[in-house]
User: What shape does this take?
Amino acid sequence: MFIEVFKSKIHRVRVTQADLNYVGSITIDEDLLEAANILEGEKVQIVNNNNGERFETYTIRGERGSGVICLNGAAARRVQVGDIVIIISYATMTPEEARVFKPVAVFPDENNRLVKG
Assistant: This one.
């Protein structure tokens, strides 16, 4: 048996762009993707803290260090620039794997940049 578990998230980033005329997806700063262990093209769930919307799309690598969070295509209708969202990825694994798996959570600053620690 396999179960789907929380793999990683980018917690509380600000939407910087919404492009209705682009063909689907979410563009995310490459620094954030790498820190959260999310691959380009990976399916993610978007949770909008401003309006309660929850939807799925796939990721596109954005310019490194840009802080870009851009919802594209139909997803652009689910957000407004300035909204705070959480980007969540999941993984399928056995219950045994899930018991020892350690998810990754990234908490960027107010400009969607990684906090240097």
Notes: Helices lie at 30-35, 95-100. The radius of gyration is 14 Å. The chain has one domain: 3-106. The beta strands are 3-14, 17-19, 26-29, 43-48, 54-62, 69-72, 84-93, 104-106.
